[in-house]
Amino acid sequence: MSKVFVNIGLSLDGYMAPEGMTMEHWGTPEYKNWGAKWGALMRWMINTQYFRENLKFGPGGETGPVNDMVRNTMERIGANIMGKRMFEQGEASWPEEAPFHTPVYVLTHEKREPWVRPGGTTFYFINDGVESALKQAREAAGARDVRISGGANVIQQYLNMGVVEELEIALAPVLFGSGRRLFENLREPGPQFRIDNVLDGPAATHLRYVRQ
Amino acid sequence: MSKVFVNIGLSLDGYMAPEGMTMEHWGTPEYKNWGAKWGALMRWMINTQYFRENLKFGPGGETGPVNDMVRNTMERIGANIMGKRMFEQGEASWPEEAPFHTPVYVLTHEKREPWVRPGGTTFYFINDGVESALKQAREAAGARDVRISGGANVIQQYLNMGVVEELEIALAPVLFGSGRRLFENLREPGPQFRIDNVLDGPAATHLRYVRQ
Fold first, then answer.
1. Which of B173, B186, B188 lies closest to A209 in CB terms?
2. In angstroms, what separates the C-alpha of B186 from chain A's closest C-alpha?
3. How far apart are CA A169 and CA B10, in angstroms?
4. For chain B, how many helices (H) and strands (E)?
């Protein structure tokens, strides 16, 4: 059966996104310096060959173990689940060929027909909650895995449901000071993880945890 | 010149101490399960031969790279600085031969004569602030290094002063859900660190950052 996993970038002080990185300030990345902070957080990924290719940034980019990891992560995904805010930010940023190449289940109150993009990505807008989204994502994923893509609030809900089997964190050596924390609102007792693997990259430490 | 460094255990969700771990509940570690949580956080250290020897827990314990790291960390310290809460908890817990073997500068409003313990630890009670404590600690440390021992609030003050040159974090795969966070109240722009070394232990991932 397919696995449910999280794979995100995290600042050393625990933020998934810096303060100011909202739709309101999407066109002004200098607002509270959010653009530079986000770039520092995701530098490990932005520089990879796979990411550049997937986002249509052109040729070049780093190869090696981090690039291989990014490619393996993307290739194991059969369906994505994301929150409304992450979708809206992406809608304003992704190339026409959105970089998922799978069904994507967007948790939202908005009623909207599925949005088919070239390259295999179709966004489905789910109005009946996290469990329904997970059920549909599992069915769509088949033998491949379901990624809870974000944002923080959506990941927290799935952590609290106890369904996240693998937690992959690229811990970047940056301090944001404020923003959206990943680990908040966790129910007690929380899920239990053990260290599965650590990949020591130059721009982030790639921590992989597996549910106990 | 001696370096100023931090070396702590941190939960995956960013807490240095679980909720309930206060003097009020020191005798009841089952309160909010703080004792078990603390034990899980510090398991990487508690099991080492060096820690057992230093705390007079008796012979035995793990040898190997984590034990060597703990020993090297302790041996580089020429002076410690800690907050009043950490001192009070330790005063109620340490053996007579307190486990520092250096001068320890305790930040407090309490006026108290230096407290000399067997084995080389003397506690000095500092009433005139963090800069004074650092100055005295540097002088006492000589060629060895100054450790900012904790708690979270004290480390935050020294991070905000920009004097912390090395940040060593043992990141344990535990989620506390609540407690005292290390990374809070950081001034903007915060200090800048780069990844220096990663030691992949079974009970924690040992992350070493150096100031840029």
1. B173
2. 5
3. 15
4. 7, 11
- Among the partner-chain residues B171, B183, B207, the one whose CB lies closest to the CB of A175 is B183
Per DSSP, the three-state class of B207 is strand
Nearest to A13 among B173, B178, B183 (CB): B183
Cβ pair B202:A195 closer than 8 A: yes
Query: CA B41, CA B177: separation in Å to the nearest integer?
Result: 13
d(Cα B187, Cα A175) in Å, to the nearest integer? 10
The nearest CA of chain B is from the CA of A19 a distance in Å of: 12
Contact (CB<8Å) A183/B209:
no
For residue A198, the chain B residue with the least C-alpha distance is B200
CA distance B137 to B134: 5
pLDDT tens, residue order, chain B (212 aa): 789 999 999 999 999 999 999 999 999 999 999 999 999 999 999 999 999 998 888 889 999 999 999 999 999 999 999 999 999 999 999 999 999 999 999 999 999 999 999 999 999 999 999 999 999 999 999 999 999 999 999 999 999 999 999 999 999 999 999 999 999 999 988 899 999 999 999 999 999 999 99
Q: Which of residues 7-66 of A touch B (CB under 8 A)?
A: 12-14, 33
Chain centroid, CA A36 distance in Å: 19
Q: Give the whole-angstrom CA distance, residue A192 versus residue A165.
A: 10
Report yes or no: A141 and A135 within 8 Å, Cβ to Cβ.
Answer: no
Closest-CA distance of chain B to residue A58, Å: 28
A53-56 own/partner pairs: CB under 8 Å, 24+ apart: A54/A99, A55/A94, A55/A95, A55/A99, A56/A95, A56/A97
| Interior/surface letters B32-56, b for 16+ CB within 10 angstroms, e for the rest | bbbbebbebbbbbbbbbbbbbbbbe
User: What stretches of chain A show up as alpha helix (H) in DSSP?
Assistant: 34-41, 43-46, 49-54, 65-76, 84-91, 130-141, 152-161
Q: Are strands B103-107 and B205-211 parallel, antiparallel or unpaired?
A: unpaired
Q: Rounded distance, CA B174 to CA B203, Å?
A: 10
Q: Is the separation of the CB atoms in B79 and B104 below 8 Å? A: yes
